[in-house]
Amino acid sequence: MSTPPALTWVVVSYGGVDDARGLVASLGADAPVDVVLCANKPGDAAAARTAFADDTRVRVLDFEDNPGYLPALHRALPELDPALPLVLSNCDLVADPGCVDALLAGVAEFPDAGWLAPSVIGSLGQDQNPNLLSPPGARWLRMLAAVHRVPAVADVMLLRREGHSSRTVDGVAPGTAVFAGHGSCVVLTPRYLAEGGRTDYPFALFGEELWFGSECARLGLTVRYLPSAVLRHAEHVATGRRRRGHVARVKYEGLRWWARRAADAGW
């Protein structure tokens, strides 16, 4: 008899079924997970059902109209058990051994948390968490929006960072409460949904960390840095050289929206 799931892992794929296979395999064959793969690209659903035909832990949802990243989770919610911890992640991640156990231990250790931010090691070898110790200021967000309004300018900035736009914060102790973790892997505790945490984010991509961070703050829940759970992030799905101009255009509208919200919130 199979072990009932103790954690739900929602993987959003856009042409990343092979990556998703690597992620699911890295969780371990005996990990008590319910894996829900949101297939956002035409052809992904059929490919995923073939790839995971022998793994009863994996369910495939056909979202080939491509709702986006967090909107895919929002659409999938009726299919999920709200009593379980919930992971939302990109497909281009690989978990270190023991990651699931560390996440479950973190949920038990931090009952005040709405979000756990695991260690996400980027392709440059640096931990992309805890990401944001405090909310970004409205002025900073307006400046970023201005930069991303011109894709060529944003492209130059990304080239200087070798295509990686994520910031890195060093010297943060495990368990520290922060504003937001990295959006590539968001671990929501059962309290997040139980307390009324929202998932109806209005943009397909980017800014998810600001959404979940502000929601946790609104609900009086903490965001805890959990480096005992480790994942490794390939980062090629959104930040590859040929996609940088597209990334800049998508980010522009979201950054303008967040700049207005930040001003209203007094960030």
UniProtKB/TrEMBL annotation:
Report the domain of life of the source organism.
Bacteria
Pathway entry: Cell wall biogenesis; cell wall polysaccharide biosynthesis
Parts of the chain that traverse the membrane: none
Q: Specify whether DNA repair is a keyword of the entry.
A: no
Q: What keywords sit in the KW lines?
A: Glycosyltransferase, Transferase
Q: Which SUPFAM superfamilies match?
A: Nucleotide-diphospho-sugar transferases
Q: Which family does it belong to?
A: Belongs to the glycosyltransferase 2 family.
Could you tell me which PANTHER family the record lists for this protein? GALACTOFURANOSYLTRANSFERASE GLFT2, RHAMNOSYLTRANSFERASE WBBL
What protein am I looking at? Glycosyltransferase family 2 protein
Q: What is the lineage of its organism?
A: Bacteria, Bacillati, Actinomycetota, Actinomycetes, Micrococcales
